[in-house]
Fold this protein.
Amino acid sequence: MPDGALPRDAVHAYVDSLAAPERARVGEDVLAGIRAGGYLLTNPFEAVDAGIRRTLAVSGVDVPGGTHVGAFPHRSLHARTHTVEGATLILLDTGLRPLLDRVAATLVAYQLTTAPGQRRAGPNPPPAADRRQRRDEADAAFAAAVLAFLRGEAGEPAETLDTFGFFMARSAERFALGHEYGHLLAGHRHAPPGHDERSARREYEADELAAMLILRGVDDAAEFRWRALAVAGPFLFLAVEQLVNQVRGTADEQHVSPARRTQALRTIFEQAGARGLMHFAEAWVSSLLLREAAIVRRARA
Ligand SMILES: [Zn+2]
């Protein structure tokens, strides 16, 4: 079981350890709010964390004691892992859940109303003008979700996050958190990815463990579609990260781009014998990638 609430003294020490550029990105007002709140951070990822720990436990892997998961307003999709005061804090971004929920809800709603052969489209696909309008609405919703994340706003909660979207968004969180566990369990130094080959290799290693956690966590008895939705999570996460980087204009700064990680992920799933699941999974996320340029244009307008 997860260790419960984040220890406040460790959170306090973590906040004090932030360097000036990080403080600036988080915002002094936000940090002041955390201080005023007595360094109490909530953990919206408790259920996701518990799932990962169960999978690790059945795989015979022990999570080091004193490891805590929580949310922190980094404004970065790459989580932070920090060891202070004898505790290891894995901190995902506070905005990650609303961002993934909104994107997944839009993705599922858009696919179900436009893709031929899907549930609600029926034998008579909607006319072209309708499809265009839905596509524009989806682009606008994706752009709004990314902008809300970058501004650090909670944003509107996803209106109709149906079961498909919910499942895909939680799996994306599982991948993001599993990636951090990958670094932790592989004994990588806690640092944001740098620009050398060694650091790149660590990123791929962490992704590999995260992908294995997804596959091991899948119920083999579940219907194919549900297993594919779980595999869609990592692709959703990386597509969203790419979109955020493009809108923010930081896509070229990264040595290990989400596109390269996606490519490596395909190899991992193929080697794990999950090629069929992967193709179905990527189809769920494909409309986000196909619309990327239009979404970025809209968000930056
Ligand atoms: Zn990493």
Notes: The longest strand covers residues 87-93. Residues 8-97+155-294 form one domain. The chain has a mean pLDDT of 88. Strands lie at 67-72, 80-84, 87-93.
